[in-house]
Amino acid sequence: MQKVKMPVLLAGHTMTYECVLRPKSLQLSLKAEGLSSAQMVLDEESPDAQVGAWVKIFYPNGGSGVYTVKKVEINRITNERTVQLEHGFGTLQDAVAFAKLDPRSLGGDSNTVAVDTAIETLLNYQSTWVLNECDFDEAQGWSFTNSAVYGALEQLTKSVANCQWEFDQSALPWKLSLKEIPSLPECEMRMTRNISTMKVSLDKNGMFTRVYPTGANDIHIGSVNDGVDYLEKNTEVWGVIESVITDSTIKKKDRLKAWAQTELDKSAEPIVTVTISGWDLSRATGEELDRLVIGRICRVPLPKYGTVLKERITELQWKNCIADPESVTVTLANSRKTIQGVMAKQSGGGGGMKALLRSGKAWHLSVYMGTQSLLFYCISAWVPTILQAKGMSMEAAANAATALQLLSLPTTLLVPIVAEKIHVR
Asked: What is the 3-class SS of the chain, one letter each residue?
């Protein structure tokens, strides 16, 4: 890695250089998911960087980005200023798509909209960013209501596999691209005892190795899956962890099976996060430090579990990329964009309410629950009053109401057992 150029303060919200900043230190965190950030310390002789100003930061591994000053703290003793910055992608948090956007208003048909069309429609609610390239042509049933543009874009990409935002901030308007990133490993770690900086954490939250998918009108995959209603993967390594997933917009069983297999592929392993120094990772993989960039996939062996995982570089952190640009901490993870996107789609991100209203099973359950509640409250609230009106004493009426409640207990216990045996739910 070469010596890093000093950050540049831009004039207003333009790409014109105003002056060069000379921070004492510059922390930098580049992220694959979420917003990249930076923090620099300026001494009293350095020019001011006010909140809201734009600063161009040059990266140790090449390239640059424009960041917004979010916070400035002043040390009254030394007059040093600690400046916190956020990548310019975060400016989309200040723009709101103040409308109810469904597939049709996003530019698609009544049920689905292409991902590039949806992105362009959302970006039309502001003027700083425009869509440059999109490597995906898939269509889904996204919908948004009065959403911040940034949040809507992040929600949209949660259901697109192997994607990553790329930014071109060389001129205004800035250009945003949704790129497909490699899904196959490009390097492999060789475990040695000399790797002292490596730390591994394992999280099984959200993981499943056997999945039961359901679609519209409660369809299952048994008839297109050799009579089995579930799919499974990695049970021999991680055991059987079951889950039910639903997409009420899918009406065909073969499509339901394909979707479930995709979700299973992303969720059949725990989330394994590896942090390691750049130099150790470079030695373990034989890759140059400059080639360890966000998005690259590396095969990481886990001898304790007898398996090898594909881990993607998700974050690069420099404690001080001005003084020591080669001292970088690399985070690798097999973090998955999976059921979060599915749940978002069901709860409003994909026309789930319309599908719910069209679901016969939902209406049956609503009528059943409403009827049983009506009967319960009629009996418990009105039967004693009616019996007293017919001449019963208060005590006798109360005993009769209690007897009715007790007589309903056997039915309450038997109905679920019978339903289980005749496979009616």
From this structure: CCCCCCCEEECCCCCCEEEECCCCEEEEEEECCCCCEEEEEECCCCCCCCCCCEEEEECCCCCEEEEEEEEEEECCCCCCEEEEEEEHHHHHHHCEEEEEECCCCCCCCCCCEEHHHHHHHHHCCCCCEEEEEECCCCEECCCEEEEEHHHHHHHHHCCCCCEEEEEECCCCCEEEEEEECCCCCCEECCCCCCCCCCEEEEECCCCCCEEEEECHHHCCCHHHCCCCCCEECCHHHHCCCEEEEECCCCCCHHHHHHHHHHHHHHHCCCEEEEEEEHHHHHHHHCCCHHHCCCCCEEEEEEHHHCEEEEEEEEEEEECCCCCCCCCEEEEEECCCCCHHHHHHHHHHHCCHHHHHHCCHHHHHHHHHHHHHHHHHHHHHHHHHHHHHHCCCCHHHHHHHHHHHHHHHHHHHHHHHHHHHHCCCC
Percent of the chain with pLDDT over 70: 90
pLDDT digits (tens, 9 = 90+) for 205-241: 889 999 999 999 899 999 999 999 999 999 998 999 9
pLDDT for 39-96, tens place per residue? 999 998 889 899 999 999 999 988 999 999 999 999 999 999 999 999 999 999 999 9
